[in-house]
Amino acid sequence: MDNRPAIEHWSNKVTRELTHIGTQPAGPALAGHPRGRTAARPPSAHFAQAMQQARSAPPSQLTVGSGNTLTSIVRTQAEAKGLKLSGHDEHRLAQQLANANKISNADLIHVGQRIDLVSLNQELEALNNNTARASVPGTTAKAQTDLSAAATLASRRPTPAPLAAVAPKTSNLVSHPVLEKTLERAVAKGFIPADDKVPVYEKILQMAKDHRFAPDDFARMTLMESDGMNPRASNQRCHGIIQFCDGPARGAASAGYADNPKAILDLSVHKQLSLVDKYFGDVGLRNQGPAGLEDLYLSVLNPASRSERQVTAALDIGGKQARVLHTGSDTDAPITRQSIRQGLLQNAAARLGQFMPTAMRGPSIRTNQVAANEQH
User: Cys-Cys crosslink for 295: which of 161, 178, 291, 341, Cβ 3.0 to 4.6 Å?
Assistant: First the structure.
């Protein structure tokens, strides 16, 4: 049965009734009108204002499109309100948006998924109001400072927290303590500007997803190669956070810096990560996957050695590497998958020191257990 005529009838009726909302009290009947109705007057100013507010209200829902992330959604909604968020606030609000929508992995949303924006809109509105109060024109410098301080208190925004505290510790959200502590250390050492910490963190998480490795393992590798993401780390032949080397075998050529590898040292950590991303694609890291700690490190040190799967077999790696990578920390002994794992875990624990959670300390016992399991 076709209900469209009935639907159109009631739609038109509702529209006619809305026309009379906000009119003046009843007056004299229209001359000759059979039912004595009063003349319709223009809608009131209150009704017009309500309609304008309804048209300008932010959307309460959004459908995820291709290329969208929760962070990009937060950024877009903020920009629509004229707000420029810091990287920390973007990450914080993205996590809140994930929680509000019961999304267990804030880094994974799907095209066509519906995202409820109500809680985000409320947070952005509060930030917008506080920003407006903090920038009232025509005030003295002291008054402006007082207003800014009051706005900050009124907003009740948390102070910038370590990355470990940005992602809520719930059973549904994965924490990456070694990566988080490595980045905190990198900021403390001046390797990474504080404002770049969250973008670098997110970039590494995206690379880990694309190339199928553990984010904490990437941190362990950089702790070995560059003291934990020092973009200016160099031994004259190899440069940057994963030590892009001259020649065709160690990545400078893959990254597009074959003619001048040292130019990599002028790039920030975030920009160097884009080179790492390309290099991992060139050496087929995602095909190893999910890649273990040894495969990740061998992809940088000597990709051809990944074909050797025996954990105690000597790997064909020329020259002496860092002592801790050799069996028994003896540079005359071979490098094996087992010695690489042990060396990277021990090196990470030694470099992070007080940055490591208590539960993560003393990796040598765990290392020996892992190695024993792999041999059986």
Answer: 291
